[in-house]
């Protein structure tokens, strides 16, 4: 008896491939993170439209993609729309425009880090108008954004994650679906709460060791080669060694996220001291520098 071996067909893959041949992609927000993320979608060959409030920021997309003159045009002409914006206020401005459009059947993916409550309210509003919504903040800063190695933390319906995943795969190395709408934001706030403690602890450790006569370079090497080290300590080491605090992740944004974590329920022994440190450092003029510039505030203190 002979057997015919038939190829295994993934109907999910066929579904995704068919949708991708039809769907047009829009990206709103070309800041430090949004720009390289959108560039990765462009390089992958997706039919892409972009919009940025500061139009000059979009000019580098002119050769291969469409530069939309406004939010309304981008939403009207695209099926899957990504947003990567600075804060709740910026998200509110953009989505107040979006919800006034005809959006039934479209998928909106907000990759900003905003209030969990506001993200859930936004999801409910969009769904009431027949659109789908995924909150998908990312773990990682400008370097992994450029390399396409972000961690994408998604909250929403499983079918909507499947629809977004081909695009996620060009922006990140891992997509983690953690639950319904708002749960992506919840996980991101928890991660950044942890990082806020780590970066202040790293800064204090470097200052303490220097006060005892240990060089900054030596201490950072010891940390990074021991169990104390992590990707987070290693990525901040060149900034600390060179004392170059150009923002990969600004102190302003860290303060925003710790305050959002507090709003979401974080109330632990370190919560208020962290807020005090980062808020005072912001007032002292360190807000636009990288978060690890908190070391200079702590030195002054």
Strand content: 5-15%
CATH structural architecture of the largest domain: 3-Layer(aba) Sandwich
User: How much is the average pLDDT?
Assistant: 93
* Largest sheet descriptor: 6 strands, parallel
Q: From the alpha-carbon coordinates, what is the Rg to the nearest angstrom?
A: 21 Å
Write the CATH fold name of the largest domain. Answer: Rossmann fold
| Uncertain segments | 1-16
**CATH-defined superfamily of the largest domain:** NAD(P)-binding Rossmann-like Domain
**Count of DSSP E strands?**
9
Number of distinct helices: 13
**In percent, how helical is the residue content?**
40-55%
N/C terminus separation: 84 Å
Please write the CATH class name of the largest domain.
Alpha Beta
Succession of helices and strands: HEHEEHEHEHEEHEHEHHHHHH
Structurally, the number of domains stands at 2
Strand order of the largest sheet: 3-2-1-4-5-6
What spatial form do the alpha-carbon principal axes imply?
Answer: globular
Class derived from helix and strand content: alpha/beta
Written overview of the protein:
The protein is an alpha/beta fold and 301 residues long. It has 13 helices and 9 strands. The protein has helices at residues 11-22, 34-43, 71-77, 88-98, 116-128, 142-147, 158-171, 183-211, 216-225, 231-242, 251-263, 271-286, 294-300, and strands at residues 25-28, 48-51, 66-67, 80-83, 107-110, 132-135, 138-139, 150-155, 172-179. α8 (183-211) packs across α13 and α9 (216-225) packs antiparallel against α10 (231-242). The protein is globular, with a radius of gyration of 21 Å. Mean pLDDT is 93; it is low at 1-16.
